Amino acid sequence: MFKKYTGGNANNKKIHWVALVENHAYPADARVRPHIETLADAGYDVTVISPREKGQSWYEKVNGVQVYRFFLPAYGSGATSYLMEFLHATFVMTLLTLWVWFRHGIDILHVYNPPDTLFIAALLPKLAGKTILFDLRDLSPELYVSKYENHIQILYKLLVWFERVTCRVANHVITTNETYRKIIIERDGLNPSQVSVVRHGPDLMRGYLVKPDADIRSRARIIIGYLGSMAKEDGIDHLLQALYILDKHYSHLDWFCILIGPTDDLEGLQQLARELGVQDRVWFTGYLRFEQWVSVLSAADICIEPAPSNPVNNISTTNKLMDYMALGKPVVGYGLTEQRVTAGEAALYAKPNDPIDMAKQIALLMENPELRAHMGTIGRRRIEEQLAWQHQKERLLSICERLTEKNSVQVT
User: Fold this and answer.
1) DSSP H helical segments within 24-78, as ranges?
2) Which of 47, 154, 184, 193 sees the fewest Cβ atoms within 10 Å?
């Protein structure tokens, strides 16, 4: 057991923890917020640097956490656009890191990816003897290959190099599952003691079990739900095709599908729904806050994780899958490695990348309310007993405690 951090080091100096978050504005990032709130609750002096969403302040305190935000323009969704976004963010976040260091000090710099270019912001603090923690949430090389069929090999190799340099600059690396851990140890030449797994998991204290939205519940006999971003690699086209097959091959017409989250191409997905003839029973809600989507999704009978088999999905653990389980919902998805590790018997698994088989599994659940209830109970129990954030936060705090004591930790 590790002693709990009590707000200072041996000299009674409060540890200043600075986190760099580019992927989403804080506190909207559901994968980062539990980390930051856990650190603040444990007594660390925490500052977050993140992009700014419309309407947010450039600076504010959020539950005791200082948040500095910067403008990040929308460059688009192509490979060049992502590169421009990452370069812009890296430059600005490097300057803000230096400014926060000058104004408040830095003891530990916590760098979240993407992008993996943020090692640049860590170089001067590293040379000054500060401790660097790299939080690898996405494998950027695999994500790039999955997003772009005509990917450029030299860009893939550049992303691998960025990842390797970032891992080498860091004193310690956190990642989200054992598959990721194994890959970066082998690919980046790290000592196994340098890499720890801290899984993401639902925070049950936020209140997942709420009254279902009555309007949604009244729209059909079976409500089908999806939660999360909707980019090419997320498989929304697979889900829409499966819904079409439900109509044509299984004659299941009394359903309604809610898709919650931001989309890269809303117009294209709506056009596909029209072409398949399911547009009147599909609702793209856009982004909803936790308090909104938890009520909407609580009305669902079946939840879907349609992410197809590809280099990144095969090895990734998705938050949406655990959110479904926290709500006690049965899940249908493709039989990908980490999906099976996470959901176990709480999901039915279709043949990878086969919308026809996905429709078959959805139909099976539509016809079996007892099976739905049984699977939902299994999923909720797995969250409560193994996967909830409450089980992961002590591991994070153990790593943080070691980082406050020396520049390297021995946690595996």
Assistant:
1) 33-41
2) 154
